[in-house]
Amino acid sequence: MITAIARTAPNGVIGFTLHPDFVTASARPLATAVIKVTLFDVLAGTVRLTQAHLTDEGLAQLTEPMATTGDGVLKTFTFVVDSTLRVRSADSTYLYDFEVTAEAVSGAAQALVLSMVRVVKTGNHAPSSSVGPQAVVRVPKTVVKMSATGDVTDYDDSAKADLADKFAALAGVDSSAVEVEVSAASVLITVKITVADVAAASALTTSISSQLADPSAASAFTGLTITSAPTIAVAMEAGPAISNGWEPPTPPPMLPGAPPSPTEQGFWQWWVIFVVAVGSTCGCVCCILACLFMVMKRGGSKGKIKSDQGVASAISSASSTQPPIVV
After folding, report:
1. Which of 106, 89, 109, 126 is nearest to 48 (CA)?
2. Which residues, in sequence order, are CB contacts of 164 under 8 Å at separation 6+?
3. How far is CA 284 from CA 137, 164, 290, in A?
4. Could you give the strand order of the β-sheet that contains 134-148, starting from the edge strand earlier in sequence?
5. Helix (H, G, I), strand (E, B) or coil at 184
6. What are phi and psi of 60, to 5 degrees?
7. What are the chain's domains?
8. What does the pLDDT read at residue 300?
9. Is the pTM of this model over 0.70?
């Protein structure tokens, strides 16, 4: 984990450079990460992570923005970077590996007051058993958006498949790598083409931009009435979960005569202590009761002896006062 503390930026951007030892550590090089941004929420708007050094590849926005409210409270925003966090190349003219960027509701830059930023590595290690053996990866895609006439209901599965085939042929990929989405706006058509890597996505974006530069070209290509120039960009989207081959180890079986586990030992130790304590308490109570019984018994015997002696004395005294009997 790497940490930075206390920065202020009136223009709303603070850049960060990761130390090479942190990025390339042989035991655990940087891959995916969680970036925690602690800031004073002084103005309403948004805060997000950007990578200016990837602007040319269309990947300047590292994470989706999170809303700020301007309530003045110290808050921590957690950004999950689930694709590889790319650092600058050795010959890059950019100064930072990533930036924390604050914007007003209008989209204009606004002041940013940071308290702390933490970068925590989350990749290149075996996941805990609570997470499980699967991980979600992000895959590069070229995304084409264009508006067309008609209604959403006009675009059934057959029409979508036809569009997918056309864009697959244009991109040189299989039709299974193309997704077609249709939403209302009059009709907004979104085509997503999955490619091998970011470089391929960038090259395909440039190629499609030149071929579908205006509504006329897009209409001729799709066979639809396209009402606006298509927008083409590179995006990183969640792909299918993949297994990294790691599973929690199975504990070895207990051997015959093997000593009990620490948990079992602790159980029996406490049980013996409990039995000894109860037995000792009962023994003490019995001893006390026996002593009381003996004391009471001895006290009763003395009282009886004294009483018998008094009666005997009285009889003797009475006998001595009687006159002799003359026959």
Report:
1. 109
2. 175, 178, 179, 180, 191
3. 70, 90, 10
4. 178-184, 187-194, 134-148, 231-243
5. strand
6. -65, -30
7. 2-121 (2.60.120), 134-243 (3.30.70)
8. 56
9. no
